[in-house]
Amino acid sequence: MNELSVGFSQDSDTKFYNKTSTIHTALTTQPGLGYFPVTVPTMAAYKTAIDAYQGALSGDGAAPNVAARKSTREALMTLTQKLAAGLELSADGDLVKLAGTGFETKAKPTRSSGPLPAPENLRVKTTGTAGEAVCKCAAVPLGLTYEASHTLDPINGPWTFIPPVTNSQSILFTSLSRGKDYYFRVRAIGATGPSGWSDVATMMVV
Hints:
This protein is an alpha+beta fold. The protein is built from 5 helices and 10 strands. α1 packs antiparallel against α3 and α3 runs antiparallel to α4.
């Protein structure tokens, strides 16, 4: 089984921009448009984020321009990861459809010598947007996706889950209540099932 590659963190700005432009073109023309007539985010919203990133790339090295380049890249990366997750779900393993997304694909391991280890080095920080937080953890070998959850009470719960993502370095939580202490945890999911949960990370949401 294959998944869409979203390992963009090491890409240069130009390379990342070119990849996202390729994805947008693939999903707004045939056959990609026919396979995925509805996407989340919409292609209009995705194009807006690409254009904002392109505009930021044209700036000089002044501090405000560097900050704008970073923020628009992070926003576009988050949308790209969300888009990939939705496309994978819609394609349901259909390699022809996945090839029409404009994303690169990568082979998923089909065997594992044992249960996956729990993710380590979980960190959480704000995104700069009210009511949001982003978690990052070390990638788990043979982990295909990462499932995350949050709660206000780590002892009694309940835990609220978010849809699985393919990038352990950007797990986004939205619609959180401001001024409250949240607790976050992550686990990896592989061919043989889920790992144990990571240690809990906590942060007051602003």
